[in-house]
Structure formats: structure tokens, C-alpha cells
Amino acid sequence: MDVLRTELPGIGVRFEMETKRGVRLSIVAHREGRRDFVVYDPDDPDSTLECIVLDSDEASSIGELLGGARIIEKINSLHKEIDNLVSRKLTVDAASPYAGRTLGDTKARTRTGASVVAIIHGDQVTTQPTPATSLNVGDKLVTIGTSESVDAVDRILRGEI
């Protein structure tokens, strides 16, 4: 999909695109963090049908949800290309020694070779979590690696290794 980027002096940046179904839309990223999601009238390209204004927190949440879905989609496509690659959602339960601690405390990647590519906390998705990302009871860690390495991350979360 082609995205046209236009600088808006004093305002921010507009990103404009057309979907495969012919819907033209844009996102105006204001300097202060606000985002305007605009859907244009197909019969009059200079008129809008809808403008949804999102504050920076709302825009961030939607971005994380969409970004997380895209990462999962890409991981699933990799499964077809690499025979021994798996991805699983691992849960941090109340008995985990890492509940209330950070992802870095698990040293999961160093110890197993598997990668945690996203963390799902309720309806929030954190893509590309850092070692400082907190782990909470009920969080789901989207983990990718070999079957053995993902199993090892699960055992780490349960405090078995």
C-alpha cells in the first residue's frame, strides 16, 4: 500500500492512503500528540465523511493493537517457511516468580534463544517489549523460537528452571 506523506507546517504530518476497497483515508499526526483519523467522501475527494479525533493515549493504544496484530500475522507466515519455528502465548500466572518483575529479569532470550515479541495485558498489546517491560499476573507473552526454546521460556515463567 502506498502512503503519501505531507508536511503540514505548524501542525504536523498527514499520512494519506487508499485501501484495496477504494476507501481514501488519512491520519493527521499533530505535533502535540493528537491524531485525526479522516475518511473521505468517495464522491467528493475534498469532503470528509468522518473525522475521529484521538488523544495521544488513544492513538497509542490503537497503534499497539494494530501493530501487535501485524507482528502475529508475520510470525504466522514465517511458520510456513521455517519448519521448526513455533510461536505460543505463555501466561504469567500468580505463582510465577516473575510476576511483578521485568522481562529482563527472566533472561529468557539469553537462557533459551527464544524471543518475546509482544506482551498482551488485558486489551493492551506491547509490541517489541524491552527488558524493562513489567510482567503482571495474567499477561500473555507472545514467544517465538524452536519448540524446545519456547517450552523453556514457559518453564522459566513457572519457576521450574
Automatic annotation (TrEMBL):
Residues 75-159 form the RCK C-terminal domain. PANTHER family: K(+)_H(+) ANTIPORTER SUBUNIT KHTT (PTHR30445). This is Cation:proton antiporter regulatory subunit.
